[in-house]
Write a structure and sequence with these properties.
By secondary structure, the protein is α/β, with parallel strands linked by helices. The protein has 4 helices and 8 strands; from the N terminus they run E-H-E-E-E-E-H-E-E-H-E-H. It has helices at 10-23, 69-75, 111-114, 123-132; strands at 6-8, 26-30, 41-44, 54-60, 63-68, 78-86, 100-108, 121-122. Strand 4 and strand 5 form a beta hairpin. The radius of gyration is 14 Å and the shape is globular. 26% of the residues are buried. This is DUF779 domain-containing protein.
Length: 133
Amino acid sequence: MPTPRVLVTPAAEATIDLLRDEHGPLMFHQSGGCCDGSSPMCFAAGEFRVGGSDVWLGTIHGCDFFMSASQFEYWQHTQLTVDVTKGRGASFSLEIPLGVRFLIRSRLFTEEESKHMEPVLDGEEYLARTTES
């Protein structure tokens, strides 16, 4: 079984469920840029335009998770876990009105896990694959 690159906590899953009920299908993107820095941002699926400068890491609770390619260079050796905490972030992420914000917890992959990594796709490869199906 491949080692997943991104996981999600039960608390974050519950928040995703609330957001999905209100906004429909969702997606996540972690840019490492402005606003909340490297906080993952949750958008309605397709609301954030994914391109060749993004990397698809997998899915969490039915939501695609993307990261900017430059950020992935730093994080490629870590397993990311999306969690949620009380407090308002300074981003455009959908959870902000709920008084919570998503955050990332991380740990380095073990040597054994690194041998069985789940593959990643750049944004254009991802889009090509999803439009074919």
